[in-house]
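User: Hi! I'm working on a homework problem where we have to compare a predicted structure to a textbook description. Could you give me the structure for the chain below?
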Amino acid sequence: MDTQQVNARPRAESRKAPENRPTSGVIHDNTRHSAAFTVVGNHLSQHRALSLLAIGLAVHIQSLPTGARIGIKHLADRFPESEVRIAAALRELEATGYLRRSRTRLPDGRVVTRTVSCNQPGAATAPATPSRPRATRRETATAPAPVEVETAAPVETPLAPEAPLPPSSYAPPAERTPVAPPPPAPVRVPPPTARIAPPPPLPRPMKADAEHERLATALLGDLRRLAPQLTLSEADVAALAPGVSAWLERDAHPDTVRQALTTDLPVQVKHPAKLLRHRITALLPPPLPGTEELAPTRPKTIVIPMQNCDRCDRAFRSRHPGHCRGCRSEAAA
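Assistant: Happy to help. Predicted structure tokens:
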């Protein structure tokens, strides 16, 4: 008599008749695979933290044989996605444990990157479970094996040898005692630092001009129409008006002053008067140059004065009085 196989898989569900199928949602038309297939867990295919590209890339890597190349350039040549998207998907798989990368030095001195694909992360460190019946030959043959890939990567600095594990770490997981992690160190927030130097003084015009003062007062009071967070009081307008008058004295257009005071404001303005005081002082333009400053500089011409020879009374150019060239030659002969 044949013994009953308790570990044999049940038969595939028979296809439902069209009248028994649901009216909405997905409808499965399943056919049992007999060759060239890969077993993928629902924890990967229905992972909520992974992107669709990362899930598909993990399934593709698990379907590859051991030793296949899965570098970013190889995957970019195989699929239409760019290298940037593929690299981001590999980082997602590495963060969730479906992919492990480590650099190893070979006996010939080369350093390679070893990539290990895990079809079920955390299974090696899970607690011991009751023994299950041995799987059939078909189940053992179709179980995917981890994919290890070696990719040459030149590294200049040598890798430090790995320290051997202590004897206590070789104990089975059931015999280990959990160790509580150390408490986090308290975060020390440094106290706020006070200003060492006083702020620079507000610029003031060289000459008092009633028209500039009136325009500066109106310009500061009108800023709240452009930026409501720059609403100033009368005292603030009176204190900041001399600085704006200095801008107008240097031939700055009122639109230029408005743009300098209202452009690129912070999200929350706590002290509008202090902000405007800083911008009026730090962004003060220089005076416009005049025609003399803009004129090109010319080199000065050096004029050597005329002298009369003490011997022949001939005129010649020299900085000092004396004899001409002819008289000097005769005296030398």
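For your comparison, note the following. Residues 210-282 form one domain. The longest strand covers residues 99-105. Good luck with the assignment!
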